[in-house]
Give the backbone structure.
Amino acid sequence: MPLIVQKFGGTSVADTHKILGAARKAIRAAQAGNQVVVVVSAMGKTTDHLVSLAKEITNRPSHREMDMLMSSGEQVTIALMAIALESLGYKAVSMTGAQIGIKTDSSHTKARIRSISTDSMRKALNAGKIVIAAGFQGIDDEGNITTLGRGGSDTSAVALAAALGADECEIYTDVDGVYTTDPRLLAEARKVTQISYDEMLELASLGAGVMHSRSIEFAKKFGVTVHVRSSFSDTSGSLIVATPESNTAVAGAAIAKNEARLTLVGVPDKPGNAMRLFARIAEAKIATDMIVQNIGQEGRTDISFTVPGNDLTATLDVLKTVSEEIGAEHVDYQENVAKISVVGLGMEKQGGVAEKMFRAISRKMINISMITTSEIKISTLVSWEDALETLREVHSVFQLEKTPSQLNSQLNSSELPLKPAKLLKSDLDVERLSGMEDILIEDIHLDQTQARITMPDVPDKPGIAAEMFERIAEAGIVVDMIVQSCGRNGKAIITYTIPRTMLDTAIEVTKKLADEWKSDKPLYNPTVAILSVRGTGLRSHTGLAYRMFKTLADGGINVNVISTSERNISITVDNAQGEQGLQLLKKEFANEMI
Ligand code: ADP
Ligand code: ASP
Ligand code: MG
């Protein structure tokens, strides 16, 4: 018998009327001949309310008690949903995370799922019952209640679908699908019919709150088809799959409104310092993004990165200690910055996306204070006031309001199967994972064809990055990684990598620009190696970047430019150490490779 998992988010179960509506959807699925598992969130803004109650007492409530408190929201909904189903004449049973056997680690408020027992659910399903599962929660080995992080019911739903081998996981929410950007922010956003796991994972991680990013890691690993659709209508929504029918250079744009930028200024430039910093941050389970380590000058370098705004205090605490440990000059930070990113699988094959994005932003005289790129995403940091306008310009320059066929520029692959491929091919693979959310590495790669150029002090004003990368593109040079960060004295530092064969041309173009801008001559390294680790959910597994740095530092290898995304972490090292670095990383990650 086919099995379907349906998840209803907070707004979809905000009152008893809506709970009855959701119950009817579950009944319809059952009548169509499916076994049905329903996963629910807390009603409406219940979780926010519970959090604010604790905050009325103290600003630093213990994480264990926060989990006890927050998990109560979902317990109310499961009971009401089961009561609704029974009142409509259907057999149903509600289950908490503990009753199901959703085992997690003990990182309260950010727990990861280790295993899910399917026995009790199967028993109930086989007895003809609709199973109502509490989202967002689990239980650790000591029997403590844990929660998976805000928005985590999506992850519960997809994880249950994976464990049960469900045919589909439907995510019912208050929008009718995944849009090219948040439709509540931009009216011109367009609903997509299909989107790939990699794109959705990246978008979710960069701020598209429609899905909890970790749910997409599960979907990709275990091959779960996810259907995001409206609770309040019957129109079909968006499918999240391995290979969408068509793709364009840019699939969507995301905004993370509440970010903070931190810089550790004047870090002695030697192996191990970046490692120490990220080790401490990883221990605090803070997910960093937009990591930029400037090319060292006079033996010192600056390391900047962004974190979600609500992790700022915790990050500052960490930096205070680390700063002393490694002898950095001081810590600098900026609140109220926003990260605007574009994501697309097609970017890998189609150049020109970066300069187009930078130009669109500069046309509005908006200053970009940081840039980082990876294979399938480009992120820019702007001030909070400029965020919405930046998003609008970026959405418009890539014509995201138009369908791929209207854009007429895609690789059409409609004959590809819709059913997604699993990353984990056999039960053996699944067993090898000690936890369902463990990291999986697909590939570790060494690219020895690149060179690196740094402009150490370009003017920090609108249009600089646009001008620079347009001129480089005009010279026929394809740029790989780009990082820009604010340097000292209001100057920006831009570093990029290019194929070595293009180095002379690139130096020529960059020197001309330096003359025009009256800035220092570019620095370059003709032979860099890029070491990349490719996998799933690399950024949200906060310890991974740290392990990469540590492994290289232990081998005496200095890390230069860093680029992180959910499916890729790349770093440049000196070419002479590339091969050694590759072997060290292969050894370090041997157990996680698939
Ligand atoms: P739920 O409570 O059902 O989990 P969420 O509020 O977590 O709902 O997610 C749905 C919201 O996500 C939408 O109301 C929308 O404002 C927001 N959102 C952000 N980015 C996107 C996007 N790219 N596509 C659709 N919705 C998005
Ligand atoms: N109720 C939880 C929250 O508000 C989980 C969820 O809704 O996904 O974060
Ligand atoms: Mg949600």
Notes: Residues 9-12, 41, 151, 173-175, 178-179, 181-184, 208-210, 252 surround adenosine-5'-diphosphate (ligand 1) (CB under 6 Å).
